[in-house]
Amino acid sequence: MNQLVSIIEPEVTLQLALEHGLTEDEYERILSILGRVPTYTELGIYSVMWSEHCSYKNSIAVLKTLPRSGKRLLVGAGEENAGLVDIGDGLAIAFKIESHNHPSAVEPYQGAATGVGGILRDIFTMGARPIAALNSLRFGELSNDRVKYLFKRVVKGIGDYGNSFGVPTVAGEIYFDKCYTGNPLVNAMAVGIVEHGRVAKAIAKGTGNLVMIVGSSTGRDGIHGATFASEEISEASEAKRPSVQVGDPFTEKLLLEATLEAIRAGYVVGIQDMGAAGLTCSSTEMSAKDNSGMSINLDKVPLREEGMSSYEIMLSESQERMLVVVEKKHENDIKKIFDKWDLHAVTIGEVTSSPKVSIFQNGELKGEVLAETLVLGGGAPVYIRETKEPEYLKRTRSFKPNNVPVPSDYAKVLLSLLASPNIASKRWAYQQYDPLIRSNTIVGPGSDAAVIRIEGTNKAIALKTDCNSRYVYLNPRRGGQITVAESARNVVCTGAKPLAITNCLNFGNPYDPEIYWQFKEAVAGIGEACNVLETPVTGGNVSFYNEDPEGAVYPTPVIGMLGLIEDHTKVTQSGFKNAGDDIILLGETRGEIGGSEYLYQVTGEIFGDAPSLDLNYEKSLQTLCLELIAQGRVQSAHDCSEGGLAVAVAECCFQNELGAIIHDLEVTYRPDFVLFGEDQSRVIISAKPADSQAILELSQGHGIKAKVIGRVTEKPFLNVIDKIELDILQAKGIYEKAIPVAVGEGE
Amino acid sequence: MSKVKFGIVVFPGSNRESDARHMAEDILGQQARMIWHKDSSLGDVDVVILPGGFSYGDYLRCGAIAKFSILTEAGLLPGVLLRNSSLKFVCKFIHLRVENAETRFTSKYAKGDVLEIPVAHGDGNYFTDADTLKRLDDNNQVVFRYCEPSGELTASSNPNGSISNIAGIINERGNVFGLMPHPEDAVDPVLGHTDGRKLFDSIVENVIHQLQPA
Q1: Residue of A165, A433, A455 with shortest CB distance to B15
Q2: Cα nearest neighbour of A170 on chain B
Q3: Homologous superfamily in CATH for domain B5-211
Q4: How does residue A111 score in pLDDT terms, banded at 50, 70 and 90?
Q5: Nearest CB to B15: which of A156, A159, A253?
Q6: What pLDDT is attached to residue A3?
Q7: A331-369 pLDDT per residue, tens
Q8: pLDDT per position as a tens digit, B154-173
Q9: Spatial separation of the C-alpha atoms in residues A111 and A89, rounded to whole Å
Q10: To the nearest whole angstrom, how far is the Cα of A280 from the nearest Cα of chain B?
Q11: Shortest CB distance from A431 goes to which of B53, B91, B188?
Q12: Could you report the per-residue pLDDT of A609-639, keeping only the tens digit for each?
């Protein structure tokens, strides 16, 4: 009975098109491209390919304003599955970040797991072996039981997939804010390494070459996942659980080994991961790239379930599959490799010279589409939406800092900041990830950025994901700049030169002019910072429609930063290392508390303006830090971020359980603003006293303010200008226990 | 002098083969070869490593170390490995006390040494019945126990709830060693931890000793 139901196809009408998420204009456009009414299968194909998720129709025009070239970039942004950056020695790093927000909102475990699986495939489909995974997560507040559940399951999903697959999960960030209650953000990043000349391309070329589907068989899971990602979360979303795919990391590991073996052997003409929109997206994008076509026989596709229609097979988002184009003479070679790894490798069609993808089932032509008309950069729609400066900014900008009450107990303020889930240790989460596997992790989670050794060289790469969405909410342009600047500063603190970024732009509904204004402004800010800091954009992902019935999330453009360390023996970490070292603050302290965690704790509001940022000053600061580290004068380096100077100094003490006396801090303004303000472009370093003079001189040469503000002590006790006196072990306990307690697992 | 040959068995679900290779080749300077689980013979190897990974176990033919759960499931070592008592995967550095330094895997340590070694597992909670536990103790088959940095055995130093803080055991013949922690991830000075190095040095020394005519 079921078999019949799925094979009888509904009549294609405007109404059905609207139900597929297409607009009336878009449906008209399909009619005119085809010169007829689409078949049901074709309607499915157009609807997913023209969904926001696949087409970037509302973002691409804005994204094209970003700096997307640089001498180290080996492929342009959006040209392949991931960005590719030259690191010398004939090696390149492939990296990309992607969202899996909506699946994670309804099925957090599988949503997060398949987010990791999908981004890993984007990396190894290029021939690169994954060497690191990162993530960036946003949830509502942990007092909410549903949020607790989402948080626990997302972390478990990320851990289980990455741990089983065997990629080290090395860094990430987690923030909690009410705006993410119904619509958490789950962004996953993967990083791989490949030798130049061994990079595989997502292209279908060579008439008569075979099209093979490899990996898992195809089921009904994930049908319309891409469309689901392109609408807001509502009560109806729960019913879309079947749109969430199910991941199998063991199969993915086998697929990795088989794919790399096939690419290395030279058997692969072109290859693309089947992620969003599955067979539809891979077949049409690969064809469009060479203006070729494909003839595909769906009867050959290995199926997991009986009676799947052409519509279902084309739209399935079953995981752990790839589409491969091979020369006929290598068909058996490919089969042999995949058979060794217990995976399917089945020929389902061939490359044709016509620019059409033709889909057959049971000897019947089920659809025939011009590949070019479907894809981004081809016939997919491109929109520039209306913008309007948001109303809320009037309210947030009316903030008067002096209305904030002066605290009576600064130590208490510091402890409550350290206990804030946004600042507290994320050990509860990252201890469920395996950052050690592959034996190359020099610095894992919990420091400013992760550092991974590049085998066979003296080099290492530094990696970081970062975004303070409160700043972006208060000032999208500057917030966008800060996101890039801070992620660059984080990798600089390890001794790495920032090379390039990938980004995951999480916003609300683009049809809302205020949201679109946030989007355009944030992208402009990111572009400005990338230009000054010389970190081009290699690609990434846009996720719109991050809204729940309460409203949109804060604009959250997450940056994934890649940095390069030439000599991995010079890696610097954030924790103070030796008692007696001088503590030096690089950068200006003005006492800016707009959008700070401190202000939120005192007022419960996200208020004021984002901290100011001078990009040229930032660039000089970063250059200075790198020179100081290269000269071997820096014992530790830590970025000042959420919670300000006091939190940063406390964090520097925690790692090696040392203490600090901060005695020489200029307090030109209110002490609470100086201690807890989140001024940008500041780094705390520690140094041997013998090196301090040289450090101050070099800083002056770069035009960066530098001052010895205190020293590291053996006794684990913190004294900050006699305003804060705190036992470090007690403070560390609070910092470590905050999240376990909030999820109900601490004492 | 000829090199010691490590055979690293790769099976669906294994994922620490590159760590084992790095340890054997780059750190110890010995030979390593990957053995696909479908291969019908282990070939010419001196030491077999079943690297970390997940329960997807297959077979085992001769003397070896590691991949605790495969060894227990195959009946080469007594007991079973259950879900961690926290019900969560855990990856962190823990402390191990050397309980038996008279094995061919631990001869370079001294009894009572405390090592800092990472664990990375979701199913590392070793359990066995009281009789077996007594036999393990009587035969000195418990090689490592989880402990505090001081060497004290406590519940809080036990990352997974293992009975009697057991982290690694050896068979009666002394040629099969199963352990949950990952000494191969504590051998490289660049990565900051080296307490696992002596375990592999012990193996190499004992293999060479065995190979040399008396």
Answers
A1: A165
A2: B91
A3: Class I glutamine amidotransferase (GATase) domain (3.40.50.880)
A4: very high
A5: A253
A6: 41
A7: 999 999 999 999 999 999 999 999 999 999 999 999 999
A8: 999 999 999 999 999 999 99
A9: 37
A10: 29
A11: B91
A12: 999 999 999 999 999 999 999 999 999 999 9
Sign of CA dihedral A336, A341, A347, A353: negative
B120/A160 Cβ within 8 A: no
Domain limits, chain B? 5-211
How far is Cα A486 from Cα A639, in angstroms, rounded to an integer? 8
Shortest distance, CA B17 to any CA of chain A (angstroms): 8
The distance of B213 to chain A (nearest Cα, Å) reads: 36
Q: For residue A39, which amino acid is it?
A: T
Q: What is the mean pLDDT of residues B22-43?
A: 89
Band of residue A242 on the pLDDT scale cut at 50, 70, 90: low
- Residue to substitute from A129, A427, A436, interface B, most B β-carbons within 10 A: A436
> Closest partner residue to B13 among A250, A455, A568, by Cβ?
A250
Nearest chain B residue (CA) to A254: B12
Residues in A whose CB is inside 8 Å of some CB of B read 156, 159-160, 163-166, 250, 253-254, 340, 342, 431-442, 453, 455, 568-569
Nearest CA in chain B to A568: B190
CA distances for B175 relative to B17, B34, B77, B117, B124, angstroms: 21, 20, 11, 22, 21
Please identify every residue of A annotated as catalytic: 53, 100
pTM: 0.94
Q: What is the DSSP string of chain B?
A: -PPPEEEEEE-TTB--HHHHHIIIIIIT--EEEEEETT-S---S-SEEE--SB-S------SSEE--HHHHHHTTSSSSEEEPPTTSS-EEEEEEEEES---STTTTTS-TT-EEEEEEEESS-EEE--HHHHHHHHHTT-EEEEEE-TTS---STT-SS--GGGEEEEE-TTS-EEEESS-GGGS--GGGT--TTHHHHHHHHHHHHHHHS--
**CB within 8 Å of A299: residues ≥ 6 apart:** A360, A361, A362
Nearest by Cα to B23 from B197, B206, B147: B197
Q: What is the ipTM of this complex?
A: 0.92
Determine the distance in angstroms separating the CA of A163 from the nearest CA of chain B, rounded to an integer.
8
Over residues A311-328, the pLDDT tens digits come to 999 999 888 999 999 999
> What is the pLDDT at residue B61?
33
